[in-house]
Write a structure and sequence with these properties.
This protein is of the alpha/beta class. The protein has twelve helices and 25 strands. Helix 1 packs parallel to helix 2 and helix 9 packs across helix 10. The longest helix is centred in the C-terminal third of the chain and has 20 residues.
């Protein structure tokens, strides 16, 4: 893991006062006159910032990574800086503990993955029934017995270096008569018998994200599942992420939401300069978990909100139960309220899978503008095209169809399409504009652009698009280029924003 870099501004050099843990480097400066070539992971402000430093600190410090001590008077421009960077106060008596115990969570490169469902192995001697449902889940049905015994495990161990903390989250569902436990075994690196540590986690522990640390050396995790009782057990997913401790998910400040059914959603909010608009960006298909578009959205200079979800293989198009869908709409409204913005001061955006989320939740928010590239809206058609038009090209679409409608038939295709179009048609788009970049020979949702235009019947709505030749994934860079060009056009013409440089 890369070294964690800290910049401390103040008269005293903390390197002479506090001990730094291994892997953490601290630079001291009495003044902050220019942006560093390599960004710092954390900033500590131990004196009042000068007026000429405020803008540099705003540009140089990422949100949630600026800390101020008791010596800082948080007022005027300094108060604006702290609000825009989501700064935290730190007591001088807590600095040593924080450096020793908490600074390790501010590493620069987030990482999250989902163990492949295809890598689940059924325990030797299991006597029940097994059914695989694509990448949605695997169903085990059996009399598991009166005592816990292994029923499944993941074939390949997962490496973890010494000192790294890891978050595990298990998605599963069970009949009431079934109980489970998960066993994490940490083997020494290069060994299949030398056990460094082991954790057996019951369902009470599994109600929360499980955080474990590799403290005794480099190792690899072996994950096993045990069960007892009689009935059905659905294994949906096992997620592993480098932990941020109590400081967020994926990025410092990243928020996690979860339903009673153990389905997760994530968002990351950065207030920026706190001036309209709020740019909301939905991540596209991602097999590695985390937020997409951070640098792209940050580069626009506005407040922004990133949304992502880790279900199925690469995402489930942000659809689900009413509880699940409310989490996304509520997250957007929550941060609109924090900024004091109205719907006319919001832009929803996304690329490919993210376009569905942007337009679908646009029906709830009714924003000023929708910025989408490679729109996917008739998801039932996207799945149906897997059979003849795009065989093997996007099998996740079949998982989405099964997960949402319970089957893969023509009636399921129509029901999934209708889920979007019914909501879209019932929305008054009179105060919104649509900017859409699309692929003319799109092999995922070929008629998305034309169908969107045909359903936009609200008086006052504006819509325009740019078509590029090729299939869905043939010219992503061209789509992004137009997408960003239109983003900047709307920011300039509708909000009076002009990017410097």
């Amino acid at each position: 893991m890369d070294e964690i870099r800290i910049l401390q501004l103040g008269q005293e050099d903390w390197r002479k006062i506090y001990a730094l843990p291994e892997g953490v480097a601290l630079d001291h400066a009495e003044a902050f006159r220019e942006l560093p070539e390599k960004p710092y992971d954390m900033f500590f402000l131990d004196r009042n910032p000068l007026d000429e430093e405020i803008e540099l600190l705003f540009q140089g410090a990422k949100a949630y990574t600026l800390f101020v001590t008791d010596r800082v008077e948080v007022q005027g421009r300094a108060e604006w800086l702290c609000r825009s960077r989501k700064a935290r106060h730190i007591a001088r008596t807590d600095i040593q503990r924080f450096l020793t115990e908490e600074s390790r969570y501010y590493y620069s490169r987030p990482y999250g993955e989902k163990f492949r469902l295809a890598d689940v192995a059924i325990a030797q001697g299991f006597q029940g029934k097994v059914r695989w449902n694509g990448n949605q889940n695997v169903l085990l049905e059996a009399d598991f017995g009166d005592a816990f015994r292994q029923v499944a495990y993941w074939r390949y161990n997962s490496p973890v270096p010494q000192g790294q903390a890891v978050d595990f989250w298990l998605e599963y569902h069970r009949d009431p008569e079934v109980e489970i436990s998960m066993v994490l075994t940490l083997f020494a690196a290069g060994s299949a018998s030398d056990v460094l540590e082991q954790w057996e986690l019951g369902e009470e522990e599994l109600e929360k994200v499980v955080q474990v640390a590799c403290g005794k050396g480099d190792g690899t995790f072996f994950v096993s599942l045990r069960a007892k009782g009689r009935g059905r057990l659905w294994l949906t997913a096992l997620h592993k992420r480098i932990s941020r401790g109590s400081h967020g998910y994926f990025l410092p400040g990243g928020e996690r939401y979860v339903t009673a059914g153990r389905e997760e959603a994530f968002c990351y909010f950065e207030p920026g300069d706190m001036k309209p608009p709020l740019n909301v960006y939905f991540s596209g298909y991602k097999t590695l978990q985390g937020f997409e578009g951070y640098y792209m959205m940050r580069g626009l200079g506005c407040p922004f909100l990133l949304l992502s979800e880790p279900r199925l293989e690469g995402g489930g198009f942000y659809m689900g139960s009413s509880d699940y869908e409310h989490m996304f709409a509520n997250a957007i409204r929550k941060h609109m309220e924090e900024l004091g913005f109205t719907a006319e001061q919001v832009i929803l955006s996304g690329l490919s899978m993210g376009t569905f989320g942007a337009i679908y939740y646009g029906c709830d928010i009714r924003p000023h503008a929708m910025m989408v590239g490679k729109p996917l809206v008739s998801i039932g058609n996207v799945a149906a095209n897997e059979k003849h038009l795009r065989p093997g090209g996007f099998p996740t679409s079949l998982d989405v169809l099964r997960a949402q409608c319970g089957g893969l038939g023509e009636e399921d295709v129509e029901r999934l399409n209708e889920k979007f179009w019914k909501k879209f048609q019932e929305t008054d788009w009179g105060k919104s504009k649509f900017a859409i970049a699309y692929m003319i020979e799109d092999d995922y949702d070929a008629d998305a652009y034309e169908t969107l235009l045909s359903y936009l019947q609200s008086g006052g709505v504006q819509a325009y698009g740019k078509g590029l030749h090729g299939r869905h994934n043939d010219n992503t860079q061209g789509i992004i280029s137009w997408f960003l060009g239109q983003y900047n056009k709307i920011l300039r013409e509708d909000f009076g924003r002009r990017r410097e440089g």
